[in-house]
């Protein structure tokens, strides 16, 4: 522990900062048809030997090459030869001891990520990759969270057996229920649903599964090689180039189907403390408290020190690499509340410079499990730091999530729709994405709806269906699932929901299923058609949402589109004012969480019913509102004025 404290002080010293902060962008391996260069940053190494292997699971190198010590703590080896497909690691001698490490800067690796691989990235591009483009920006972003393996593993999805649970499943066109049915699955289903962006849970190389065992499952929040695709989703985990090509093919297929791709990234901790970071420079990349205690704000055993120069540089370059090489359209930051504000804003700025202001999406979780030992007086990108974040960095709004359906952590704690008391003001605050100062009492520093991710379920905690099943009567669950959807889909902010929420996805009442069997976590495509009534309700709401400009506006001050806000016990209402491009100049919304009818007066007689508790496509049916109209119990009513 004493040594850890000394290293912590040394890494902040003038001597270290002047001599060992490397500004080049060539760390790792650069491989092309003419030459291959190896660069590793390891300032306190006495010597480093580059080991070359013929396969990614070999134990004995076929060649060992002493590396040259350069300035700023960098070690190098250059050769006028293309070493594409050659595996490697480094033997570092330090203080009389030897440590073997893979390359933390690697772009490719062998099976289970234990050996790095030199790769000529041009050789991994699928056909027409240079023509791959993100879809044009639409009127609204609707984000659908899914997991590569969960999405296509179940046979009901109709995916070929050899592609189930793999990147390649996304390249299968026009899949149908049980392969031959009339009901679409896969990307065709998502197109019909109306989502615009697919957020993919971790698909970088993670350490919590054996890539050779298809029966193993994990969500993947355990980073091993940050810049390499996960091998268990490839058809061949042993040849490092395969996973790269197949991930690119997946992204190409998703783009071709009209969706943007958002990557779930986990820069706040590593799979274990015995990481490639730790082996190349002990304790530099991790936070420790002044007494030498390891910081564990992630509750995963360690916290990455994003505030240190070379760590910040690593994360920034990693994000830019994924955006450039893999055409990623956005990034969801796991436990963003552990990353410093300066780094998040720098990432935002660099993406804006390269791709245009706000073109790449950034949002994350503005919280952590416990306190973290951040240094240099840096501020964290948590809820308290939202005022310091660029307005185009969004945060998941747990306030909205929990006020609608109750706490995600405390099963029996209910929200507005399932019996919670005195929730009306928070519901109205949610409608304006917590930007309206009159209703916003606890989330006061939000600049605009662009900073708020409005959602009610994600991979964490109970599914919406399971939460409702535990808190209300069985015959209320379907009705309240519809109500929950109608509420958050009529709130400002960026909309987000978990795959399967729209068809009543259940995990059997289990919440934290991160390492439970795939049989619990897989998407049951049969359920999408058993609960077609619910799916259709989501479809209608999403299509209606895209036509309400007053909800889609993400700019500062857009909460002013929401007027005439009122409340009664268990009932709230408001008006959405739209611009001239909308079909309806005004839209009246009423949320009735009570168990009895609520009567609304439409005295001017020029309203039509757009949505009620049963049908979200009434806006297509020219249904005129009565002078007095009933809002059904536990439902939402939406009226439009042309």
Could you please describe the fold and organization of this structure?
- The protein has 642 residues and is α/β, with parallel strands linked by helices.
- It folds into three domains: 22-124, Immunoglobulin-like (Sandwich), CATH 2.60.40; 142-258 and 323-329 and 343-361 and 388-552, TIM Barrel, CATH 3.20.20.80; 562-641, Sandwich (Immunoglobulin-like).
- The protein has 16 helices and 27 strands.
- The strands form six sheets. An eight-stranded parallel barrel has the order 10-11-14-15-16-17-18-19. Strands 20-21-22-27-24-25 form a six-stranded antiparallel beta sheet.
- The model has no long low-confidence stretch (mean pLDDT 96).
Number of DSSP E strands: 27
Shape: globular
Low-confidence stretches: none
CATH top-level class of the largest domain: Alpha Beta
> What is the count of DSSP helices, taking H or I runs of 4+ residues?
16
Radius of gyration: 26 Å
The tally of domains stands at 3
Helical fraction equals: 10-25%
Major sheet description: 8 strands, parallel, barrel
CATH superfamily of the largest domain, by name, is Glycosidases
Averaging pLDDT over every residue, what do you get? 96
Strand adjacency order, main sheet: 10-11-14-15-16-17-18-19
The CATH topology annotation of the largest domain reads as: TIM Barrel
Instruction: Label the structural class.
Output: alpha/beta
In whole angstroms, the N-to-C terminal distance is: 70 Å
Which percent range describes the beta-strand content?
15-25%
CATH architecture of the largest domain: Alpha-Beta Barrel
Protein name: Pullulanase, type I
Enzyme class: hydrolase
GO biological process, one term: carbohydrate metabolic process
Pfam family, one: Alpha-amylase
């Amino acid at each position: 522990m004493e040594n850890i404290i000394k290293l912590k002080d040394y890494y902040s010293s003038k001597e270290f900062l002047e001599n060992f902060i490397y500004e080049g962008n060539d760390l790792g391996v650069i491989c092309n048809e003419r030459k291959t260069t190896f660069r590793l940053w390891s300032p306190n190494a006495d010597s480093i030997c580059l080991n070359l292997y013929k396969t990614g699971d070999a134990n004995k190198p076929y060649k060992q090459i002493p590396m040259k010590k350069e300035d700023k703590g960098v070690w190098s080896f250059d050769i006028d030869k293309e070493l594409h497909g050659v595996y490697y690691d480094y033997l570092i001698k330090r203080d009389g001891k030897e440590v073997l490490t893979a390359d933390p800067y690697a772009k490719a690796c062998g099976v289970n990520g234990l050996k790095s691989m030199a790769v000529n990235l041009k050789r991994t591009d699928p056909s027409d990759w240079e023509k791959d483009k993100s879809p044009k920006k639409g009127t609204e972003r609707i984000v659908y969270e899914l997991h590569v393996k969960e999405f296509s593993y179940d046979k009901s999805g109709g995916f070929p057996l050899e592609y189930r649970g793999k990147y390649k499943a996304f390249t299968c066109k026009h899949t149908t229920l049980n392969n031959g049915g009339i009901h679409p699955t896969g990307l065709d289903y998502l197109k019909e649903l109306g989502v615009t962006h697919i957020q993919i849970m971790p698909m970088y190389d993670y350490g919590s599964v054996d890539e050779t065992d298809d029966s193993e499952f994990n969500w993947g929040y355990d980073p091993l090689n940050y810049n390499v695709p996960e091998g268990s989703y490839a058809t061949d985990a042993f040849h490092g180039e395969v996973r790269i090509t197949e991930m690119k093919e997946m992204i190409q297929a998703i783009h071709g189907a009209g969706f943007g791709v958002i990557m779930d990234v986990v820069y706040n901790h590593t799979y274990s403390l015995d990481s490639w970071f730790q082996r190349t420079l002990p304790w530099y990349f991790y936070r420790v408290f002044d007494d030498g205690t390891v910081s564990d704000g992630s509750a995963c055993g360690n916290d990455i020190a994003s505030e240190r120069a070379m760590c910040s540089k690593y994360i920034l370059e990693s994000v830019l690499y994924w955006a450039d090489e893999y055409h990623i359209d956005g990034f969801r930051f796991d436990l963003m509340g552990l990353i410093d504000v300066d780094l998040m804003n720098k990432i935002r700025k660099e993406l804006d410079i390269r791709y245009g202001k706000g073109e790449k999406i950034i949002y994350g979780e503005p919280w952590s499990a416990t306190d973290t030992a951040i240094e240099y007086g840096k501020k964290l990108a948590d809820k308290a730091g939202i005022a310091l974040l660029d307005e185009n960095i969004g945060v998941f709004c747990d306030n909205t999530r929990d006020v609608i359906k109750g706490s995600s952590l405390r099963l029996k704690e209910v929200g507005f729709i399932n019996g919670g008391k005195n929730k009306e003001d928070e519901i109205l605050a949610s409608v304006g994405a917590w930007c309206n100062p009159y209703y916003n009492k606890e989330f006061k520093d939000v600049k605009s709806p662009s900073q708020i991710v409005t959602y009610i379920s994600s991979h964490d905690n109970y599914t919406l269906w399971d939460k409702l099943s535990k808190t209300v009567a069985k015959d209320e669950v379907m009705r309240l699932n519809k109500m929950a959807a109608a509420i958050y889909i009529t709130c400002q902010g960026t909309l987000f929901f978990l795959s399967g929420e729209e068809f009543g996805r259940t995990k059997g009442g289990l919440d934290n299923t991160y390492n439970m069997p795939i049989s619990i976590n897989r998407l049951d495509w049969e359920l999408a058609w058993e609960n077609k009534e619910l799916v259709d309700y989501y479809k209608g709401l999403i299509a209606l949402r895209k036509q309400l400009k007053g909800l889609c506006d993400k700019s500062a001050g857009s909460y002013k589109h929401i007027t005439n806000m009122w409340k009664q016990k268990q009932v709230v209402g408001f008006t959405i004012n739209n611009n001239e491009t909308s079909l309806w100049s005004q839209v009246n919304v009423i949320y009735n969480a009570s168990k009895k009818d609520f009567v609304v007066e439409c005295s001017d007689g020029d309203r039509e019913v757009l949505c009620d508790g049963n049908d979200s496509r009434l806006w297509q049916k020219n249904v005129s509102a009565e002078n007095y109209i009933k809002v059904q119990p536990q439902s939402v009513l939406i009226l439009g004025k042309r």
